[in-house]
């Protein structure tokens, strides 16, 4: 069991690293493409329209993966004011809140997964091509959407296991204090 847990932790570390690399490359590529488009359009007065399409594709791709990164880092996916103000100094209440938020997020995500699956199947069955580059298949964006949703679910499940373990540890610690 320890080897399996260790292998899973290594796989998650590699996955998180890959997600970070994809997001860094996507953000850099999007920024460079938009900068090149602005320079070409306003300074050189020579518009290369494909730069806008490529910037959009890069942006969409890395944003779907960035949702998984944000989920894993627990940033920008929850309302932190409740935790910061109301639950400060209350570890048991904070642990219950975290478990509840992760379970609620998993439930909501599970409502969206069937639709993401439909989008994926539609994209595979009916390819759509770019407006300026007629041979460029843009249907892979729907595949990226489904893949990003699966990554978010994976990260939420890992967070749920961690938070439930923390809640159990707090409960067993309180039971020990009461005895």
What does this structure look like?
- With 179 residues, the protein is mainly alpha-helical.
- Helices cover 82% and strands 0% of the residues.
- The chain has one domain.
- It has helices at 2-43, 50-73, 80-86, 91-125, 140-178.
Features:
179 residues; mainly alpha; 0% strand; elongated
Rounded mean pLDDT is 83
Instruction: Report the total helices.
Output: 5
The low-confidence parts are none
Count structural domains. 1
N-to-C series of helices and strands: HHHHH
Strand content: under 5%
Give the N-to-C terminal Cα separation.
32 Å
Helical residue percent?
over 70%
**Biggest pleated-sheet summary:** none
Number of beta strands? 0
Radius of gyration: 21 Å
Shape: elongated
Q: What structural class results from the helix and strand content?
A: mainly alpha
Task: Write a brief structural summary.
By secondary structure, the chain is mainly α.
What's the layout of helices and strands?
Layout: H1 2-43, H2 50-73, H3 80-86, H4 91-125, H5 140-178
Helix pairs in contact: 1-2, 2-5, 4-5
């Amino acid at each position: 069991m320890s080897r399996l847990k260790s292998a899973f932790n290594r796989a998650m570390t590699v996955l998180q690293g890959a997600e970070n690399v994809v997001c860094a490359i996507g953000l850099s590529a999007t920024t460079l493409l938009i900068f090149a488009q602005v320079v070409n359009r306003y300074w050189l007065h020579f518009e290369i329209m494909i730069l806008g399409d490529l910037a959009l594709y890069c942006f969409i791709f890395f944003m779907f993966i960035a949702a998984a990164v944000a989920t894993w880092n627990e940033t920008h996916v929850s309302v932190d004011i409740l935790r910061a103000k109301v639950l400060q100094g209350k570890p048991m209440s904070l642990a219950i809140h975290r478990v509840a938020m992760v379970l609620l997020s998993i439930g909501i995500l599970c409502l969206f997964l069937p639709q993401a699956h439909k989008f994926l199947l539609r994209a595979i069955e009916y390819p759509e091509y770019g407006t300026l580059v007629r041979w460029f298949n843009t249907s892979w964006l729907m595949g990226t959407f489904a893949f990003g949703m699966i990554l978010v679910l994976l990260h939420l499940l890992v967070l749920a296991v961690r938070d439930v373990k923390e809640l159990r540890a707090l409960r067993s610690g309180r039971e020990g204090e009461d005895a």
